[in-house]
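User: For a reading group we're discussing how well predicted structures match intuition. Take YjzC family protein. Before you show the prediction, I'll give you the sequence so everyone sees exactly what went in.
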Amino acid sequence: MGEKTEYEAGDKAPNPGIYTEVGEARSFHTQITHPNRIEMEKGDTFPHTTNKNRKWKKAEKARVH
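Assistant: Thanks. Here is the predicted 3D structure of YjzC family protein, as structure tokens, for the group to look at:
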């Protein structure tokens, strides 16, 4: 089983890196114009997103439309 790729507020960061907000269901129609980006260290807790339907995802893995 692979590592989880999307995280919610309160989850712990599995690895250091830059994480960005992604829209619900990663749909083209719900793309985010200016998503929040945060730099995290392993074990840091993810903050709340700007919308309850968004998740955090590592920037290098986040799909850009």
